[in-house]
Write a structure and sequence with these properties.
The chain is α/β, with parallel strands linked by helices. It has 14 helices and 13 strands. It is found in: Cytoplasm.
Length: 450
């Protein structure tokens, strides 16, 4: 057997690698897949896994190639890559060496996650003011998780360690799989029928996005939002965030953390009770000491030992104060009388009656003077008017016409002053003192002065 030929692992691995690298179908291929387990090394190289629904392959994109990327790869991103398949000798596994990468969009589950997250956020399901307060010291806690998982053991251990007084009710719940979302919704509804439950914990351990997907279903999110009992979620690990975490009244990073925030620590409560007891006792002793000191002062006081003497002294003080008050009242009354007398004298001295009579006499004199002045002025104006009226009467054409004169008007209503203003056949109106004569010109004769 020692004469048989054999290969080393290195030789075999190199042979397989050579086969990969010389295969024209593997030297340049295009793949479309979803990125997971992405890691960007400090030296610039990118290591990740490319997967679809049924298989996965390790991949690497060296810094010399990824420096030209126009985007940063992320877990869940759907990409189209070009590269070659070869063997990584040290680990003896084949992997894809990526030379080019184009974003084809994120994976279907991540797209659905972001779309539902945006929709529920617009509807207000994530708003802080709509979250129900968590009871500080719950009496009855409902737990919704798988009975067989590690999460239930962590939750129970934590609750019993921190606050064993709380009543616990477990609602065995499917936390992954096709029927998980219906089961979660149903158990939330069942828990809400128990009015004694004041806190609910919805939890499960870590897993892939596919395994955690029931907690990203819209029906589960709405059931959490509509629950009358406040719900604490503890789904996955610290880096896992689901739609249920956004809707819940309080999000814890893990199932254990959810149990911790659901109840107070019994050690903290015992410590607080001890501190409160000390504070009460201290306040009580201080109150007792104060009361004793007050009682001691009262028992030593003069009033307590000689009450009759104190009463007599107070009666004498009262008489003295009464006499003093009466004396002050008499003095004040006398002073007020003197002030009243002075005020009366001053009023009599400055009484307005003499001034009123003087003003009345002055007013009567001024009134008579104004009347006389007006009568004189009226008579003067009346005489002036009569003289002007006589002058107007002398110049008035009416008086002239009364003496036998007349005034002729042409058809335009203008006065005819000269013979040149008329011509034979023209109509004239002759104005007399008592009327008007309409006439026609038969002839015009100019008067000559010889």
């Amino acid at each position: 057997m020692s004469n048989q030929k054999h290969l080393t692992v290195t030789a075999l691995t190199r042979y397989i690698k050579h086969k990969f690298e010389t295969d024209q179908h593997l030297s340049s291929i295009w793949l479309r897949a979803e990125i997971s387990n992405f890691k960007h090394h400090s030296r610039g190289h990118m290591y990740f896994t490319l997967k679809d629904d049924h298989a996965r392959i390790s991949a690497v994109m060296f810094a010399g190639y990824n420096q030209f990327l126009k985007f940063t790869p992320e877990n869940g991103m759907d990409v189209i890559v070009k590269g070659s398949v070869s063997v990584f000798e040290r680990q003896g596994q084949y992997q894809l060496y990526v030379h080019e990468m184009n974003a084809a969009g994120v994976g279907d589950l991540h797209v659905a996650f972001e779309q539902l997250k945006e929709s529920l956020a617009k509807q207000g399901l994530f708003e802080q003011d709509k979250k129900k307060p968590i009871k500080a010291i719950p009496e009855h806690i409902g737990i919704l998780t798988s009975r067989s998982g590690a999460a239930i053991q962590d939750i129970l251990t934590t609750l019993k360690r921190r606050y064993p007084l709380a009543k616990l009710t477990i609602f065995p719940t499917l936390v992954q799989g096709e029927h998980a979302k219906e089961n979660i919704v149903n158990n939330i509804e069942i828990a809400n029928r128990d009015s004694s439950i004041d806190t609910l914990i919805l939890a499960r351990g870590g897993g892939s996005i596919e395994e955690l997907w029931p907690f990203n279903e819209e029906s589960v999110a709405r059931s959490i939002f509509e629950s009358k009992i406040p719900i604490i979620t503890g789904v996955g690990h610290e880096t896992d965030t689901t739609i249920s975490d956004f809707v819940s009244d309080l999000r814890a990073p893990t199932p254990t953390a959810a149990a911790e925030v659901a109840v107070p620590s019994k050690l903290d409560l015992i410590k607080q009770v001890a501190q409160n007891r000390q504070s009460i006792e201290k306040a009580m002793y201080q109150r007792i000491d104060q009361s004793r000191q007050k009682l001691s002062r009262l028992s030593d006081s003069y009033a307590f030992n000689y009450p009759k003497n104190l009463i007599k002294q107070k009666e004498m003080d009262l008489d003295r104060l009464d006499e003093k008050l009466r004396s002050n009242m008499r003095q004040l009354l006398q002073l007020k009388k003197q002030n009243l007398s002075k005020t009366s004298d001053q009023l009599a001295l400055h009484h307005p009656t003499p001034r009123i009579k003087a003003y009345q006499q002055s007013n009567a004199f001024l009134k008579q003077s104004m009347t006389n002045q007006f009568n004189r002025l009226y008579q003067l104006k009346k005489n002036q008017f009569s003289r002007q009226l006589d002058k107007l009467s002398v110049l008035s054409p009416l008086n002239t016409m009364k003496r036998g004169y007349s005034i002729a008007y042409n058809e335009s209503g203008q006065i005819v002053k000269r013979i040149e203003d008329v011509e034979p056949g023209q109509s004239l109106a002759v104005k007399l003192s008592n009327g008007q004569v309409d006439c026609q010109v038969w002839g015009v004769e100019e008067e000559t002065n010889e």
